[in-house]
């Protein structure tokens, strides 16, 4: 089953894609339309492999990937150091094709443009990577575990920023249990197979590996309007009321 | 070839045979066909095709100045093929086993460890290169000649950072000098026979070399 969405022209088709590595395999079949897609799954379930397949960094063993109307795309890799190609923070920000001062300012690194990217902690490097990526505009944006190496405050910011992405297809791969953006479609990776759960919030009761607090709310008969902190807080109030 | 000692023995003899004469080089090429799987992997290796043109340039220069460039190209080309094919069979930890077997758990262990870390570094550099290319692809950039210096600098820096981490790790684990290691080898009859085949190849090559010197 796949989500249906009208009008906006962009479409990512995963046509019976299979990736095999020895005895392990990852399979995906579905259509992703504009909106925010949350793909959850346990460690080792194939999220990163699927993210790399979608962005053309890996060739599927079989099946076809169709980028219908998508002319630009970007992958936020799990490890921020994999993105680094600049000798200084300024050059690194420039390599994204954006105004470096703005990115450094957003990352809280104003005036440090001449420093070596590898002198930053992984968390700081992640902040820089995120601020650079947030200034990029792409038809397809794939985020692979963007919360890794971030503290709760930064995770909140990431979730808030992702919620603001109104155009194009945004895919978030994560095993995060607390901070989510305002999500349109929910998917799950179960034992290497991508499964479409449905539209949010209708699909929430069918979310197999839902975080415990969401399962608790649903168990009490309260379905949150979405997955943001505000929505979950509101649902909690409804339950108490 | 599973036994690292036999592999080292073969590669030393065959390298000498290949370098000394074309006959030795051609016989070494024939010897390589005893390990078709490794040879096929070598022929598919990109690194081989990066190194071969450099050999070709040197051979061309030699030919132009009146030396035997063709002979040089054949011998060095087969030497590269031999090195790459033999290297295909190495597995992590073998250099440590070999060095400890040769020189003991003191200096042997240190030499083996240094070789293992270097080999690991080469593999890491290969992965770093792939990651840089991926990052450039994601950012809509292409590797260009003018970028090579900065990419090279970046890769050296990555290597130094990793070496620093490895040094910290070894220190934390109490490494000062030497260590305990129990080398394990698995010689097979086939490997022993193919290794012994390297001896007549070297003798033939030496004979051809002596003839070349006195004619």
Polypeptide structure, described:
The complex is a heterodimer of chains A (241) and B (215). Chain A is built from seven helices and nine strands; from the N terminus they run E-E-E-H-E-E-H-H-H-E-H-E-E-E-H-H. By secondary structure, chain A is an alpha/beta fold. Chain A has a six-stranded mixed beta sheet with strand order 5-6-7-3-8-9, sandwiched between helices. A three-stranded antiparallel beta sheet of chain A has the order 2-1-4, covered by helices on one side. The radius of gyration of chain A is 18 Å and the shape is globular. The two termini of chain A are 36 Å apart. In chain A, 41% of the residues are buried. Chain B has one domain (4-214). Chain B contains eight helices and no strands. Chain B has helices at residues 4-20, 22-32, 36-44, 46-64, 69-88, 94-138, 148-172, 189-214.
Short synopsis of the structure:
Chain A has 241 residues and is α/β, with parallel strands linked by helices. Chain A has helices at residues 47-54, 89-94, 100-106, 122-134, 152-163, 212-219, 229-240; strands at 11-21, 24-32, 35-41, 62-68, 73-76, 140-144, 169-174, 185-190, 193-199.
Keywords:
heterodimer, A: 241 residues, alpha/beta, three-stranded antiparallel beta sheet, 7 helices, globular, B: 215 residues, mainly alpha
What is the helix/strand order of chain A? EEEHEEHHHEHEEEHH
Total number of helical segments of chain B?
8
Give the helix proportion of chain A (percent range). 25-40%
Helix content of chain B: over 70%
Radius of gyration based on Cα positions of chain B:
21 Å
Unreliably modeled segments of chain B: none
Chains forming the largest contact: A-B, 17 and 17 residues
Amino-to-carboxy terminus distance of chain B: 38 Å
* Share in β-strands of chain A: 25-35%
Instruction: Tally the beta strands of chain B.
Output: 0
Question: Strand order, biggest sheet of chain A?
Answer: 5-6-7-3-8-9
Instruction: Compute the number of structural domains of chain B.
Output: 1
> What is the makeup of the main sheet of chain A?
6 strands, mixed
């Amino acid at each position: 089953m796949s989500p249906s969405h009208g009008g906006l022209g962009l479409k990512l088709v995963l046509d019976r894609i299979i990736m095999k590595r020895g005895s392990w395999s990852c399979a995906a079949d579905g259509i992703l339309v504009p909106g925010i897609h949350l793909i959850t799954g346990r460690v080792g379930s194939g999220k990163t492999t699927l993210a790399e397949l979608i962005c053309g960094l890996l060739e599927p063993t079989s099946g076809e990937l169709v980028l219908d109307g998508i002319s630009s795309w970007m992958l936020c890799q799990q490890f921020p150091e994999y993105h680094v190609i600049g000798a200084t923070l300024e050059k690194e920000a420039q390599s994204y094709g954006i105004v470096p001062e703005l990115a450094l300012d957003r990352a809280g690194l104003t005036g440090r443009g001449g420093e070596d990217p590898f002198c930053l902690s992984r968390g700081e490097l992640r902040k820089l990577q995120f601020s650079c990526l947030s200034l990029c505009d792409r038809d397809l944006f794939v985020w692979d575990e963007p919360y890794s190496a971030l503290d709760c405050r930064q995770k909140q910011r990431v979730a808030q920023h992702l919620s603001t992405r109104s155009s194009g297809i945004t895919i978030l791969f994560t095993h995060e249990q607390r901070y989510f953006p305002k999500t349109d479609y929910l998917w799950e990776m179960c034992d290497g197979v991508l499964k479409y759960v449905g539209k949010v919030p209708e699909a929430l009761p069918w979310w197999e590996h839902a975080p415990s607090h969401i399962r608790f709310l649903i168990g009490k008969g309260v379905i949150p309007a979405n997955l943001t902190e505000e929505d979950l807080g509101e649902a909690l109030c409804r339950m108490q009321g | 070839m599973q036994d690292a000692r036999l592999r080292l023995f073969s590669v030393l003899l065959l390298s000498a045979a290949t370098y000394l004469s074309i006959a030795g080089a051609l016989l070494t090429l024939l010897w390589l066909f005893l390990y078709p799987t490794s040879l096929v992997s070598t022929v598919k290796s990109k690194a081989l095709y990066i190194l071969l043109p450099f050999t070709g340039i040197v051979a061309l220069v030699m030919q132009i100045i009146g030396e035997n460039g063709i002979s040089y190209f054949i011998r060095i080309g087969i030497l590269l093929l031999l090195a790459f094919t033999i290297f295909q069979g190495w597995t992590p930890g073998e250099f440590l086993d070999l060095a400890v077997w040769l020189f003991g758990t003191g200096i042997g262990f240190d030499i083996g460890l240094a070789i293992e870390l270097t080999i690991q570094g080469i593999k890491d550099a290969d992965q770093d290169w792939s990651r840089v290319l991926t990052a450039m692809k994601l950012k809509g950039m292409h590797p260009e000649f003018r970028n090579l210096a900065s990419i090279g600098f970046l890769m050296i820096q990555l290597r130094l950072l990793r070496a620093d981490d490895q040094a910290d790790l070894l220190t934390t684990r109490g490494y000062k000098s030497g260590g305990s290691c129990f080398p394990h080898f698995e010689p097979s009859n086939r490997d022993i026979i193919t290794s012994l085949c390297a001896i007549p190849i070297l003798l033939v090559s030496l004979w051809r070399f002596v003839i070349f010197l006195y004619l």
